[in-house]
Amino acid sequence: MLIAVDLDGTVWDHPDISSLYPPFRRVAPLKIADSRNTEVNLRPHVRDFLRWANEAGHLLTTLSWNDHDVAYQALRAFEIDTYFHYLAIEPHPRKDKMLYKLLRQIEQERGVRIRPGEIVYIDDRDIHLRDILENIGKVRFIHFGKDVQCFLEIPRIISP
After folding, report:
1. Which of 39, 52, 59, 64 could form a disulfide with 89 if both were Cys (CB 3.0 to 4.6 A apart)?
2. Could you write out the three-class secondary structure of 72-102?
3. What is the pLDDT of residues 77-126, one digit of tens each?
4. Are strands 39-41 and 31-33 parallel, antiparallel or unpaired?
C-alpha cells in the first residue's frame, strides 16, 4: 500500500511552511523555529505512525503543495525525512499530477504498479480530492481533523 501524506496542517500545524525562512532549528521535541522565530509544531504521534507504516511494509510519500527545499528542511529538522520512501513536494496545487508522476516513478524503479485502491491519501483539506479521484481513481481518503483527530487512529483504519 502507498500512503500519501500532506504536510501543511496535517503533519505539522503550520498552514504554509513555504512562507517561513530556514534554517530551522529544533526548540522542543515536537517544535521547530525558523530564522525569524516562527514556530511550527509536529502533530503528536506522527513519528509513531511513520514508524508503524514502515514496519508494516507500506510505501510512504509526502504529497505537498510547497517549495521542496523549505519543506524538506522542515522534515529534516523534525528528523522524520528518513521515514519517507518518496517526497512528492512541488510548488503547485495539482496533487493529482504529483501523484501520477510518483506512481510512474514507483513503477519504473520498483517494477510495481500501484492501483488506486492501494493508495491511502491523508490530508487536512479535501480540496485536491476531486482531481485525484478523476485523474488517478478511487483512492482511500482520510480527512485529518474530521475522520481522525490523531495519527494513532490511522493504523486502525488502514489495517484490515
Report:
1. 64
2. HHHHHHCCCHHHCCEEEEECCCCHHHHHHHH
3. 999 999 999 999 999 999 999 999 999 999 999 999 999 999 999 999 99
4. antiparallel
* Short-list 44, 48, 20, 19, CA closest to 31: 44
- Tens digits of residue pLDDT in 130-157: 999 999 999 999 999 999 999 999 999 9
Residues linked to residue 119 through DSSP beta bridges, in sequence order = 2
At position 13, the amino acid (one-letter code) is D
Q: Residue 141: helix, strand or coil by DSSP?
A: strand
Separation CA 5–CA 17 (nearest Å):
15
Q: What cell does 15 get?
A: 498552514
pTM (global) more than 0.70: yes
Please name which of 105, 145, 138 lies closest in space to residue 122, comparing C-alpha atoms: 145
